[in-house]
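question for whoever is on the cluster today: can someone run the full assembly for these? two chains, 434 residues total. i dont have access anymore since they changed the login thing
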Amino acid sequence: MPQKLNIDHSLPLTVRRLMTITGPLSRPAISDALEQVGIAHMEEANVQTLSGGEFQRALLARALARKPDLLVLDEPVQGVDYSGEIALYELISRIRDRQGCGVLMISHDLHVVMAQTDTVVCLNGHVCCTGTPEAVSGSEAYQALFGARASGALALYRHHHDHTHMPDGRVRHADGTITEDCHPHDGHHDHARDDGETPHA
Amino acid sequence: MAYFGDTMAHSALLGVALSLLFTVNLTLSVFVVATAVSVMLILLERHRALSTDSLLGILAHSTLAVGLVIVSFLTWVRVDLISFLFGDILSVTRADIAVVWLGGLLVVGVIAALWRPLLAATVSQEIAQAEGMRPETSRFIFMLLMALVIAIAMKIVGIMLITSLLIVPAATARRFAKTPEAMAVIASLIGAVSVVLGLYASLYYDTPSGPSIVVAAMLLFVAGLVPLAARRA
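^ ran it for u. tokens below:
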């Protein structure tokens, strides 16, 4: 599923036709996939009339209909408003549970994705750290902020970096020293989690 | 992609000039030059140094200009530039009509056979590639087909107006089509009707064939707008 797709207005294309542009699918398979992502009623709609969230769902349905072992999602919530984002993330986790497929998701929303994630790989030009995210879905502040419905999907991956990447590419470490690159042990890593637990990858 | 055809059409004049210079077949020469231009465009696009628009503009007008310069050196041939630029139905021979039919059938056949990869590459290069297709190959084949269409249509419609036949009938068809397939069929029919109407008009009113065809296509487009306006009212 790509990050973003611009479909020229001069091309008449319904959602159903979008599903089969690279290969045939049976009508029930199309309806089933659209049903799963919750846009079954839009099968006949023109793709240019879809909202951001509906379009992302249609793209997700395309991927699902091909019964993948691994779903690769590159920022799947691009162009989707905040409540739509939460709904999409919930949908993705439901799909994982139902289809039993792996999900590799690339995302910038540290705070939103983590509750549903098994393993997080934090990238900043290199692998900064990996580990299981710490769920804070019970946190009062989060419930107050985003409401009870969202609490399951919202959590914070708490970690801190012991070094920062400077604009010129050099690395400043916690003790103030600056080197051309990360220490060999960085990234595996001295990123101790806030609660002092050791991360279990 | 629409103006890609325009660039290839402009380069057709270089094809004309080279065909006169080396006394080779006109259609073949135009096809080879248009193909060469499309290959150059693909290679230049890979560098990403300039936008596609700039590249199209550079290729279109430099090939047109080089063609005109070469023609001006050919003092031993009298070239009716207007007939190349705007089409001249009187220069079409029986052999040309055979070429139009064979070329047309070939283009329709290849498009029908490669419809799915062509459409997938049009909708999204990324998706096509991720799902095991080769959008680059489809695109290249499409360019070859376009070069062929330009080479065989040039005599009738002319270099400057070929693009309008690529764009206007499709734009008219857009209002009536729900699927890409329907749009392709309707656009072809509208294009054929435009050519017939334009040629008859050219015969009756003694107007040049190319512009007459384009005017017919334009009138059909305007006629297509009417039901839309009526629906809104």
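summary bc i know u wont read the tokens: The mean pLDDT of chain A is 69. Chain A touches chain B through 15 residues (CB under 8 Å).
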